[in-house]
Write a structure and sequence with these properties.
With 129 residues, the chain is mostly beta strands. It is built from no helices and 11 strands. The strands form 4 sheets. Strands 8-7-10-11 form a 4-stranded antiparallel β-sheet, with no helix packed on it. Strands 5-6-9 form a 3-stranded antiparallel β-sheet, with no helix packed on it.
Length: 129
């Protein structure tokens, strides 16, 4: 997303130079009390495909939230039985990651589901040993 901004350069209290420029931003980096944060722009609530898939050591599940919300991220077997709860609780808007190692699940096909306020998304993955 390209937006136009106006850059103000201040050399002295009496001299200000304004220069227009365009910049593509997906987030605004900020530093608050020594902690680097990133404020996302136009983030949609989305559950992404895990990577790698299939996996045999560890896999990463990534999801984005367009607003602060209570979430549940769970893993189910092919019959719909809940096998593991990865995350449950309040999360801030933005992109999040959760990992799962092969020790947690036997080989097979599984589904992971993200439930957030007003939205449920499910994806499929495979564990190999």
């Amino acid at each position: 997303m390209k937006k136009k901004y106006l850059l103000l350069i201040l050399w002295s209290p009496l001299l200000i130079k304004a220069q227009p420029f365009e910049m593509e931003l997906s987030s605004m980096p900020i530093n608050l009390q020594g902690k680097d944060l990133s404020i996302p722009f136009n983030v949609t609530t989305e559950l992404r495909q895990n990577y790698p898939n299939p996996y045999h050591d560890i896999t990463t599940i990534e999801y984005s939230l367009n607003s602060d919300s209570y979430i549940e991220l769970s893993i189910f077997d092919f019959s719909g039985k809940k096998m593991y709860e990865l995350e449950k609780g309040f999360k801030l808007a933005g992109t999040h990651q959760s990992g799962i190692s092969r020790e947690v699940l036997p080989s097979g096909v599984y589904y992971y589901r993200l439930k957030s306020e007003g939205l449920t998304q499910t994806r499929k993955f495979t564990v190999t040993h």
